[in-house]
Design goal:
Layout: H1 2-25, H2 34-56, H3 64-79, H4 82-94, H5 97-114, H6 121-137, H7 155-160, H8 175-195, H9 202-220, H10 222-228, H11 234-251, H12 256-262, H13 271-283, H14 288-300, H15 306-331, H16 351-362, H17 377-386, H18 390-415, H19 420-438, H20 442-449, H21 451-465, H22 470-479, H23 482-502, E1 523-528, E2 531-536, E3 558-560, E4 571-573
Antiparallel strand pairs: 1-2, 3-4
Helix pairs in contact: 1-2, 1-3, 1-4, 1-5, 1-8, 2-3, 2-8, 2-13, 2-15, 5-8, 5-23, 8-9, 9-10, 9-11, 9-21, 11-13, 11-19, 11-20, 13-14, 13-15, 14-19, 18-19, 18-20, 18-21, 19-20
């Protein structure tokens, strides 16, 4: 636990510094509340680090030293700004013993939960292997030829690589998802405090309500709690979906004076949802709907201007370039496992292999076989999916609720001055449509599916408990007591610590310094051509922390790209 907490405290400081520098450079003045600004800065800093490390992996292995150099370089660059240094002095003055104590208590609670043994099957299948390839060798050409899933490119793995040094013996792979949960809970606490302040906003209520749905699911649901204790990129996408929606609501609230100011500038607050969305896409392609909606929001929310079209295109191209480059190096396809624009390179997978991988991972129309000749194909397919798991039934129920609540949202649009509402509706519609057409898994859909339900409840709460509510006035008077502020910060976090500890496998084991190792597998040493690899022998066949290269079956036409340099030089097809 101590390692996790130490890493998180370092990342909190570093990512805040990086993000504040970016907010100032981008002139994102809509994030005027201190709490909102810190959360936006944290996510911007995380994404900037992740994308930078992914780009660095094209040149260098992502060792702890390389990770530290990249992080320190970003921090130093941010501190060059006088405005950033001034803002940091203000933030420093706001720190208090009770605030620091509450933060450490929250970190302790999350560390107690996330230091369980990692059991998520995808981590054993390829997550940890991908992290280890990046940590030891950087981006390796053609590793998708060893195992197709190793071609899945994620900046989340690049962010995790420097934190998973060999010295830790595969014990700390969940550290980065724990940090994402820490930011999400901080966001919830800050937004909840704003809800009962004199300046509550619809964005505060939205995060408070969506967090009350998401956080219990993430921590207590059988599937998502297993994913939480892993390096899976699915978790940050769930959180970032809410963050993009929240940032759209915040940047839609500009006054008339602010509107006139931003009309003449392409660097302004509306660019933040776009940058966060692009960063999310570099983590996982299931975030593509975020990119679509946030780019349209940036271009059209004020008025159509060619400069904004050009700027959005430049940002998307620049931030996606590392992901596309790494994907081409590992698989030959820029958007692998999609076979779209795949290149004919010596280390590239064949179009047929890419299509097979795509069908297996997001071609769910083929998962259930062929429908009976007398049945409607679409109804039969939907019923097969619906009846497969309770999670699928939950998704269907939430979609029905969203349609009903959509009527309430439409009515609110007629009277509300918050223009971001229409963009959040578009976010859920595009997100659910994309997931249902590709891979309708609960963990992919939940972030999109709760947007309209959470927004509907948020609108209700804002109208009934908003700034002019007598109930809210009494709550504000109670909250503004200094004693209660301390209780608000400390007591729930202390309780959360106790609850988290009690939930850990009944037999409580304090992993004071480090979590348990990943599950160990028996493997056989095999050879194909000049490639010596390690193959798991026991079912289910998972690599976990098996020595690199770990693979299940290597085709006879695969060989080392440069035998004198070994596996770090990559792999090629000898039939190219």
């Amino acid at each position: 636990m101590l390692y996790f907490i130490a890493v998180w405290m370092f990342l909190l400081v570093a990512c805040s510094l990086i993000g504040i520098g970016l907010l100032n450079w981008l002139k994102a003045d809509s994030f005027e509340e201190v709490g909102d600004r810190i959360i936006a800065a944290l996510w911007l800093g995380v994404l900037a680090l992740a994308i930078s490390l992914l780009a660095t992996s094209l040149l260098l292995p992502l060792s702890p030293l390389v990770g530290a150099i990249v992080t320190i370089s970003w921090v130093a660059l941010s501190l060059l700004s006088q405005r950033t240094r001034t803002e940091l002095m203000v933030l420093r003055s706001l720190l208090s013993p009770s605030l620091i104590g509450g933060l450490l208590t929250l970190a302790l609670a999350i560390a107690a939960f996330t230091t369980q043994q990692v059991t998520w099957i995808d981590t054993g299948l390829y997550h940890y292997s991908a992290i280890q390839w990046l940590a030891k060798f950087g981006t390796v050409p053609g590793i998708a030829l060893l195992f197709p899933n190793l071609g899945f490119t994620s900046s989340w793995f690049a962010l995790a690589a420097p934190l998973n040094a060999e010295i830790f013996q595969s014990r700390v792979s969940a550290v980065i998802n724990g940090f994402a949960l820490l930011i999400a809970i901080l966001h919830f606490v800050i937004s909840l405090a704003h809800c009962f302040s004199r300046k509550s906003k619809i964005s505060d209520w939205f995060i408070a309500i969506s967090s009350l749905i998401i956080l219990p699911l993430v921590i207590l649901h059988d599937l998502t709690s297993v994913i939480l204790v892993s390096p899976s990129p699915d978790l940050p996408i769930i959180f970032l979906t809410q963050v993009v929606a929240w940032s759209i609501l915040i940047t839609s609230r500009n006054s008339t004076q602010e509107e006139n100011k931003v009309r003449t500038s392409i660097l302004e607050s509306r660019i933040i949802p776009l940058i966060i969305a692009v960063g999310a896409v570099t983590i996982k392609l299931t975030a593509l709907p975020l990119l679509l909606v946030s780019s349209l929001f940036y271009i059209f929310s004020i008025r159509l201007a060619f400069r904004r079209v050009f700027m959005s295109g430049a940002i998307i191209s620049l931030l996606l370039l590392p992901m596309v480059s790494v994907s081409i190096m590992t698989s030959g396809c820029p958007l692998y496992p999609s076979s779209f624009l795949c290149l004919n390179l010596p280390w590239a997978v064949t179009i047929q292999k890419a299509q097979e991988t795509a069908e297996r991972t997001h071609g769910w129309f083929t998962w259930y076989g062929s429908p009976p000749t007398d049945a409607n194909a679409w109804l039969w397919l939907f019923w097969k999916w619906f009846s497969e798991t309770k999670a699928n039934q939950a998704i269907a129920l939430v979609l029905v609720i969203s349609v009903i609540l959509g009527i309430y949202i439409v009515r609110s649009l007629m009277t509300s001055k918050i223009r971001g509402l229409i963009w959040l509706a578009a976010l859920e519609v595009c997100g659910i449509a994309f997931i249902m057409l590709t891979a309708p898994f609960f963990r992919f859909a939940v972030g999109y599916a709760i947007i309209l339900p959470a927004l509907s409840v948020a609108l209700f709460c804002q109208s009934k408990l908003g700034n002019h509510s007598s109930i809210n006035h009494r709550l504000m008077a109670l909250y503004e007591s200094n004693k209660l502020k301390k209780v608000f910060l400390i007591s729930p976090l202390f309780s959360l610590t106790l609850i988290s500890i009690l939930f850990i496998n009944q037999g409580i084991q304090f992993r004071l310094f480090l979590p348990p190792k990943l599950p160990q597998m028996k493997f056989a040493k095999k050879q194909v051509n000049d490639i010596v690899f390690f193959s798991p022998e026991i079912s289910p066949k998972l690599c976990w922390a098996t020595e690199l290269p770990c693979a299940f079956k290597i085709e006879e036409n695969i060989q080392l790209r440069d035998p004198s340099r070994g596996i770090q030089a990559g792999f090629v097809r000898n039939d190219y």
